[in-house]
Amino acid sequence: MQLSEIFLVLIFHGKEKQRIKNEIFGEEYTAIEVFPKESELVDEANMYHLWVLPKGMNLPFGI
Q1: HSE (side-chain half, CA atoms, 13 Å) at 17
Q2: How far apart are CA 53 and CA 32, in angstroms?
Q3: Which residue of 48, 49, 53, 61 has the smallest Cβ count within 10 Å?
Q4: 15-52 burial, b for 16+ CB within 10 Å, e for fewer?
């Protein structure tokens, strides 16, 4: 797989995750995804976890 193909896959998954977050929690909520250290990784079923911040709570940095 070439870098451009990997980038397209990441864009697709990112848009899908954004859509799912919006449909479940709403467009004005912030969610984060964590990529743990390899030694702490638990990947039994190829799942993703999003943590949704309480409404009005923002990250201390911009994206």
Answers
A1: 16
A2: 8
A3: 61
A4: eeeeeebeeeeeeebbbeeeeeeeeeeeeeeeeeeeee
Instruction: Tell me the residue range of the domain where 55 lies.
Output: 1-36+46-63
Tell me, yes or no, whether 11 lies in a domain.
yes
The answer as to whether 56 is a domain residue is yes
- Residue entry with tokens 């896959």: 9
For residue 54 the two structure tokens come to: 């309480």
**pLDDT tens string 26-62:** 999 999 888 888 898 887 777 777 889 998 898 888 8
Domains of the chain: total: 1
Return the beta strands (E) in 2-63 as ranges: 31-33, 50-52
